[in-house]
Design a protein that fits this description.
Shape: elongated
Number of helices: 8
Radius of gyration: 20 Å
Largest sheet: 5 strands, parallel
Distance between the termini: 59 Å
Strand order of the largest sheet: 3-2-4-1-5
Mean pLDDT: 94
Order of helices and strands: EHEHEHEHHEHEEHEHEEEEE
Length: 256
């Protein structure tokens, strides 16, 4: 350690967008850090501070980014790794801990703090009511780190089990057809009336919400900035004259 100073790595969830979603704990961690690491668009959301260095990297360089931040902290620095939403939901906390598990022994001695944030599915759910009001699951539709066959299996079983679902990473240029395939699988297991919510860029100035029945849900309605919520067979829509509809999944299930 340089000068006997003890290093620290804090993994910070920025929330879904605007600064109002940033928790006080996250804001304090960002202010205290000597160096920030992260995917460049996320770093751009953090106001610049004099004397604080920034280290941007590409979205697919999670392990390399984690290793660089850990090495920096091991040298005695106070380092923050920024992550969109919550760092523990398809984000950087797992990559950092994976790097610690496989990296140098000195990384295990570092102080590591994970600061939670509002993740996209919670931001989208809050915008339209309470579609995750009963049991739910979150599934990444990206097959970069798992086979597509496993995603299909999980989609089918989640639908059969009665979970509401949140889809992260729904489409990309490399896999433009997979979301349509996912909806086709769900249509085999669920009624076409089940509500589907497309929440694009929720928490940012260009946010858009779209509510459609599963029968009318299609892949072209989403991009990588979209988080999708799929209700269960028990999810309901409450119509309100002159106001947006409310979507909620009752707290009770079945005959209870």
């Amino acid at each position: 350690m340089s000068g006997g100073k003890s290093g620290k790595l804090t993994v910070v969830g920025l929330g879904p967008g605007e600064a109002r979603f940033l928790t006080p704990e996250a804001s304090a961690a960002l202010n205290e850090a000597e160096a920030l690491y992260g995917y460049e668009p996320y770093l751009d959301r953090v106001p610049a501070r004099a004397g604080q260095t920034r280290h941007a990297s590409d979205n697919r360089e999670e392990l390399a980014r984690a290793g660089a931040a850990l090495a920096h902290a091991a040298g005695g620095a106070q380092v923050a790794m920024v992550s969109g939403g919550d760092p523990g939901v398809f984000a950087m906390a797992a990559a950092v801990i994976e790097a610690i598990e496989t990296g140098p022994e000195e990384w295990r001695a570092l102080e590591l703090v994970v600061v939670p944030g509002i993740t996209a599915m919670l931001a989208v759910a809050a915008r339209c009511g309470a579609p995750l009001g009963h049991d739910f699951c979150a599934i990444s539709l990206s097959d970069n780190l798992k086979p597509w066959e496993l995603i299909e299996k999980r989609l089918r079983l989640a639908a059969q089990a009665g979970f509401a679902m949140a889809f992260y990473n729904p489409v990309s240029k490399a896999r433009p057809h997979q979301l349509e395939t996912a909806f086709d699988i769900l249509r085999e297991e669920l009624p076409g009336s089940v509500p589907v919510i497309f929440g694009r860029a929720v928490g940012r100035p260009d946010e858009r919400l779209r509510l459609v029945p599963l029968a009318n849900a299609h892949g072209h309605m989403a991009d990588m900035a979209t988080c999708i919520l799929v209700g269960s067979v028990e999810t309901r829509i409450v119509e309100r004259p002159g106001l947006p509809s409310l979507v909620y999944t009752p707290r009770r299930a079945g005959d209870v």
